[in-house]
Design goal:
The protein is mainly alpha-helical. It is built from 14 helices and no strands.
Length: 283
């Protein structure tokens, strides 16, 4: 009898939890759905009836998409966004993993100081350094799509090194020692032995940084400006005279910008929790 009551309570609790999670999911998905709906409506209808579904009078068809993509130079901006995102993430994953492996395995004062420096970098607000950063980027000629890769590496290294360090602490040292005994150099040991074991956390770091860099507006706008527009920067150029904005065009372009990152996230999101939790429990 008690077992039956416990099962009913468990089912009831699971049902309530499921309903709560569904409600929270709807709250998170509603803004995306709202953008999608309004991307098929005319400018005035977006402003006057933003929550209404498109009807015969307000339905704009695909004109918002064709005109919006042309007005923003979307595909050129997408090329810069893809280039900057992909190569920035590659640099962050490669150099952060090597740095974390070094400071975790070399137990000395210098490595401890470096670890705290990277950790401290996580809490420094970007607004505190954006003006000096812009000046330094101009002086060092980093104000281009290649130079900004190293700036993203600097900003992304703090969190990435922190995540990698937590994961590497629980990797078996015996595997690396065996590789050294077999004649592997430190470089070969890292790339042949350590890096493959870091795959779960590397995927997590790649996903988090991809979502950040793809959606970032402030840093590309400050560093490379209008000459090399990424998608978030290009969207802002829909603003017309006296601050007027064609909201239909903007909603269409935002929808196009969201589609790749949403697909990427849903494909890879299971690795985020796996990568973070695998470094938190020794086993």
């Amino acid at each position: 009898m008690n077992t039956g009551q416990e099962r009913r309570r468990t089912k009831k609790g699971n049902l309530i939890m499921g309903l709560v999670l569904c409600a929270v999911s709807i709250l998170f998905l509603f803004p995306i759905l709202l953008v999608l709906i309004n991307s098929f409506k005319f400018k005035l209808d977006v402003i006057n009836t933003p929550f209404a579904l498109p009807n015969t009078g307000s339905f704009a068809g695909l004109s918002n998409y064709t005109n919006g993509l042309t007005a923003t130079g979307f595909f050129r901006a997408a090329g810069f966004s893809i280039f900057i995102t992909v190569f920035s993430v590659v640099l962050i994953v490669l150099f952060s993993s090597m740095t974390a492996w070094f400071i975790t395995r070399c137990r000395n004062i210098l490595c401890k100081v470096l670890y705290f420096v990277f950790t401290f970098a996580m809490i420094v607000p970007f607004q505190m350094v954006m003006f000096p950063l812009t000046l330094v980027a101009n002086l060092l000629h980093l104000d281009n799509p290649v130079g900004i890769l190293f700036i993203y590496l600097g900003f992304g290294a703090g969190t990435s090194v922190f995540l990698y360090s937590g994961f590497i602490k629980f990797l078996p040292v015996a595997v690396e020692e065996a590789a050294v005994i077999d004649g592997c150099s430190p470089v070969r040991t890292f790339f042949s032995v350590v890096l493959p074991m870091l795959t779960p956390i590397s995927i997590t770091v790649a996903i988090l940084n991809t979502m950040w860099i793809w959606n970032d507006y402030l840093l590309p706008n400050l560093i490379i400006g209008s000459e090399y527009r990424t998608i978030p920067v290009a969207v802002q150029y829909l603003r017309g005279g006296y601050g007027s904005i064609d909201m239909g065009y903007m909603m269409a372009v935002i929808t196009m910008a969201l589609i790749p990152i949403i697909i990427f996230y849903f494909i890879c999101q299971k690795y985020i929790i796996r990568g973070v939790t695998s470094g938190s429990v020794k086993g």
